[in-house]
């Protein structure tokens, strides 16, 4: 079939365009050269994680329950160990008994206060009655209706009634003071009970965060106490690489910059990280850390936070990170 001239022209243009596209890359390299690759620096160090050495505090007793071994993954709040708590439970029972006695003492003192108040009411009525007798005898004495001796006796009785009232009023204040003391004692006993409840809670060792039990340092039946390590717990969800960058490259490294991390253990896997910390103080290169660039006198510490969802990265594992160097001052 014969093609028309416009058709042949279109085909010719398409062929030339395709050839141009194929030849553009080598022609571009010939004319402009190979585009520059962003400079980078390779740093090395060791994987670190938040580690917590767990021990019992405030209590000392033999370990009675220790269900987990090394390598076990645990969630926050998981009971890891428990010591014999019989002594602490007995102390708690004693505190409850003492507190019950203190509560009864408060009730007794309140009852005493009520009784003394009733006595004061009775004393006032009695005094009022004797004062009326005194006024009547005083009038009778003026007309010689009673003897002086009888009047003197009435006066004495009034004075005695007044003294009795004053004494019982003082007993009211004493009863109030006794109630205050009993309530203060009750509050002290309640505080002691609460403290012993807290102490009892220390007989149970719980995981402060989710992680992996890296080291088990105690056995069932051993005496546990403050400062005696039971477990070392690693938080493998949040690991980082401690590395050092030369002073000459410091101005080309940025916080939050993405970093590719690799390890000898998994050489074909690249872990995603980011620079989470750059030290503001220079230090001499640690003997255990070497940079791949020429060693200089001063270096700056970096913390490269790494995603570790599968818990492949473990504390102490050597690793390397490739950091792209950015233009200085930008």
UniProtKB/TrEMBL annotation:
Its main location: periplasm. GO terms for cellular component: periplasmic space. It holds the Pfam family Beta-barrel_RND_2. SUPFAM superfamilies: HlyD-like secretion proteins. Transmembrane segments: none annotated. Keywords: Coiled coil, Periplasm, Signal. It is found in: Periplasm. Residues 239-323 form the CusB-like beta-barrel domain. The keyword S-adenosyl-L-methionine does not apply. Belongs to the UPF0194 family. This is Putative efflux pump component.
């Amino acid at each position: 079939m014969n093609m028309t001239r416009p058709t042949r022209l279109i085909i010719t243009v398409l062929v030339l365009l395709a050839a141009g596209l194929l030849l553009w890359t080598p022609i571009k390299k010939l004319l402009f050269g190979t585009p520059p690759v962003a400079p980078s620096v390779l740093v090395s160090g060791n994987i670190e994680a938040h580690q917590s050495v767990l021990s019992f505090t405030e209590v000392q007793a033999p370990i009675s329950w220790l269900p987990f071994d090394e390598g076990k993954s645990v969630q926050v709040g998981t009971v890891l160990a428990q010591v014999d708590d019989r002594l602490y439970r007995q102390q708690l029972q004693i505190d409850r008994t003492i507190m019950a006695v203190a509560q009864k003492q408060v009730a007794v003192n309140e009852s005493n206060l009520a009784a003394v108040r009733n006595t004061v009411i009775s004393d006032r009525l009695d005094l009022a009655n004797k004062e009326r007798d005194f006024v009547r005898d005083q009038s009778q004495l003026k007309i010689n209706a009673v003897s002086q001796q009888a009047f003197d006796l009435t006066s004495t009785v009034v004075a005695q009634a007044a003294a009795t009232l004053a004494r019982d009023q003082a007993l009211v204040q004493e009863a109030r003071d006794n109630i205050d003391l009993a309530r203060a004692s009750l509050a002290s006993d309640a505080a002691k009970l609460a403290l012993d409840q807290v102490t009892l809670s220390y007989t149970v060792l719980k995981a402060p965060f989710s992680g992996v039990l890296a080291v088990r340092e105690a056995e069932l039946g051993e005496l546990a106490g403050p400062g005696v390590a039971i477990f070392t717990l690693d938080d493998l969800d949040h690991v980082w690489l401690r590395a050092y960058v030369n002073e000459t490259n410091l101005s080309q490294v940025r916080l939050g910059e993405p970093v590719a991390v690799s390890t000898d253990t998994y050489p074909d896997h690249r872990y995603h990280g980011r620079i989470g910390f750059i030290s503001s103080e220079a230090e001499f290169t640690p003997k255990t850390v070497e940079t791949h660039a020429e060693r200089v006198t001063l270096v700056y510490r970096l913390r490269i936070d790494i995603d570790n969802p599968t818990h492949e990265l473990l504390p102490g594992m050597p690793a390397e990170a490739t950091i792209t160097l950015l233009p200085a001052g930008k």
